[in-house]
Amino acid sequence: xxxxxxxxxxxxxxxxxxxxxxxxxxxxTMVTQGREPLLGEVVGMKMKLSPSGLIVQxxxxxxxRHYTGIQLDxxxxxxxxVHGIIVLVDGGGGRGGSAESIEVEQNxxxxxxxxxxxxxxxxxxxxxxxxxxRNTPGIPVWQRNYYEHIVRNEAEWERIRxxxxxxxxxxxxxxxxxxxxxx
Length: 183
Fold this sequence. Notes:
By secondary structure, the chain is of the alpha+beta class. It has helices at 5-8, 51-66, 99-104, 115-134, 154-166, and strands spanning 24-31, 40-43, 46-49, 70-77, 81-88, 147-151.
């Protein structure tokens, strides 16, 4: 089928004109391809990670090693999605390098953490390792897009943290749960 811009246009989820290198907290949700529950299972009200879930956990916690200028906040792995808060901190610099190079290029996107790049890297790191584990090279693990929300104040940040912490306890009723009965 030939490319038709009207039919094949992907709507951007980014806030138009927003600088995603700007310091602040960002709430993210990433869903597995086809909502496949490959990251583990909820047992009782706790998440039991599968080997793939452990890979995802390690990839998340490794992000600050790859991107200076970020801090990780609340995080939760569910059977077929993850929730997390990434904080881009002021003056973080970017992906390493000498203090002089960071100072010279402080305003360059190349040296400053850029949220879509961080998400791309997380998905890429985890996908590559999961595909090695499953012997499925090149198979997508994550849906193409992801949900993101700019955290606007402390009260909202606390509500999102609580939502993330309590997520396994609500799995039975979660809309991402393929077992959920739609009424």
